[in-house]
Design brief:
The protein contains 15 helices and 17 strands. By secondary structure, it is α/β, with parallel strands linked by helices. Strands 3-5-2-1-8-10-11-9 form an 8-stranded mixed β-sheet, with helices on both faces. Helix 8 packs across helix 9. It binds aspartic acid and magnesium ion (MG).
Length: 468
């Protein structure tokens, strides 16, 4: 029998009714496949846990008590709606109560020492998935299927101790997942594994970074060499453009891993780029599917040779809330290390650079950063660079956006860039900055934000993406 991993995000398991629906999807798939389930925390619970950890650090006892009651109620309500069988429900609810008591103790501990470390924060954040997984497991058992619940640690996912964004140690993880999870599949037991959380070699709880449940799913998929990893979410799949901007945007039936990574970076509802790593290596395909529309087959993400190479541009994205910085000065021309200095200043200030462009004249470098970081970026650059003979001017524009045209077919296809830019110029819209990496997977450029939507629509039309 074929094997699959089914991962359900927070919005898919937001309520007891939704969890029942998820269980029915699992039961359905279990007729044809050996299934491993990965679940996120109930919608927004991870955010609330983060907030509670902050409040605990400020020794807000009332907050902890109220929070405890609310978290308990949310999960008890969800479980009573999700599970009908009295015995199963009782077991699950007892497990929930026990975990919420433990959570209260952890928060109280933080409030006494008034110290919140990355380590203790991860521990608090882990409760979201530790509470959701037993409910999903119970709902599956309620449908008369055998199911067993695991934390990431119990399943065997081992990471380094980079709390908040831990990296899995692949060899030991693969070995343990095979040892612990594979035998269940042979016995037709459905393992339900908490997404997002794992543990160090010493057993200390870690998290894989926000949105990390996808990563858990692909880790399991790669370790168990499954046939596909299904990422269930609340959209039909990846689209040629944001349907709010382009009403006739179409779903993309197939994408390569590289294209999916580009889309993720540009904020499409794809997987986190890191989550793609394990499955790229093992060539396991992933499929983005809609829980509310399971008839739809979603977007298949697979290796380039498998994903059909259609037209040059496959999708066009708009990235808002960005700002462009221009650093210029004759002193930069022919001076080794001048770009490095600019980037180093930003790096040391913790500012991520999204896009860079520098002309061969070397007299200026343009950068795009998140708009909310613009002030910090400018002051850091000014303090470090102005008046030292290198940089003479630093300017910025905060009313811009980035447009990205994405598609592996662009590689080596002549005239794609010229078609993109001709389309923009026909609209009489000025392009402020351009970047194309030599991977040729995307062309990114900056226009005024007021023109952004018109540009996306025009490119969508020019490349006939509605006929995808
Ligand atoms: N619950 C975690 C988060 O909200 C992980 C996930 O949902 O993938 O980030
Ligand atoms: Mg989530």
């Amino acid at each position: 029998m074929k094997k699959i991993v089914m991962k359900f995000g927070g919005s898919s398991v937001a309520t007891g009714e939704k969890i029942r629906h998820v269980a029915s999807l699992v039961a359905n798939a279990a007729k044809d496949y050996c299934v491993v389930v990965v679940v996120s925390a109930l919608d927004e619970v991870t955010d609330e846990l983060g907030e509670a950890a902050e409040q605990a650090q400020k020794a807000k006892q009332d907050y902890i008590q109220n929070f405890k009651q609310r978290i308990l109620e949310i999960h008890l309500t969800a479980s009573s709606k999700a599970i009908k069988d009295k015995q199963v429900k009782k077991e699950v609810q007892q497990a929930i109560e026990k975990k919420v008591d433990e959570l209260e103790k952890v928060l109280t501990g933080i409030s006494y020492v008034r110290e919140l470390t990355p380590k203790s924060r991860d521990y608090v954040l882990s409760f979201g998935e530790r509470l959701s997984a037993p409910i999903v497991c119970g709902a599956i058992r309620d449908l008369k299927l055998e199911s067993q619940c695991f934390t990431g640690k119990e399943a065997g996912i081992v990471t380094d101790s980079n709390f908040g964004e831990a990296t899995p140690l692949m060899n030991v993880t693969t070995h343990q997942l095979k040892e612990r999870i594979e035998p269940l599949l042979e016995k037709k037991v459905i393992p339900v594994v908490t997404g997002y959380i794992a543990a160090t070699q010493d057993g200390v709880v870690t998290t894989l970074g926000r949105g990390g449940s996808d990563y858990t799913a692909t880790l399991l998929g790669a370790a168990l060499a499954v046939d596909e990893v299904w990422i269930w979410t609340d959209v039909d799949g990846l689209m040629t453009a944001d349907p709010k901007i382009v009403p006739n945007a179409k779903m993309l039936p197939e994408l390569s891993y590289q294209e999916a990574a580009e889309m993720a970076i540009f904020g499409a509802k794809a997987m986190h780029p890191r989550a793609l790593e394990p499955i790229i290596k093992e060539k396991v395909p992933a499929r983005i599917r809609n829980v509310f529309n399971p008839e739809n087959h979603g977007t298949l993400i697979s290796s380039e040779t498998m994903a059909k190479r259609t037209d040059a541009v496959k999708a066009v994205a708009l990235i808002k809330d960005v700002a462009m910085i221009n650093v210029s000065g004759a002193g930069m021309v022919g001076a080794p290390g001048s770009y490095a200095k600019v980037l180093d200043v930003l790096g040391r200030s913790g500012i991520n650079v999204m896009m860079i462009s520098a002309a061969a004249s070397e007299g200026n470098i343009s950068l795009v950063v998140r708009r909310n970081l613009l002030g910090r970026a400018l002051s850091a650059l000014e303090i470090a660079l102005l008046g030292r003979g290198l940089v003479s001017d630093i300017t910025s524009e905060d009313d811009v956006c980035v447009i990205a045209a994405i598609g592996a077919g662009m590689k080596g296809t002549l005239g794609v860039a010229s078609r993109v830019f001709t389309t923009v110029s026909k609209k009489r819209i000025n392009i402020r900055m351009i970047a194309q990496g030599s991977s040729e997977l995307n062309i990114s450029f900056v226009v005024k934000e007021a023109d952004g939507m018109a540009v996306v629509r025009a490119i969508h039309e020019e490349f006939k993406l509605d006929k995808t």
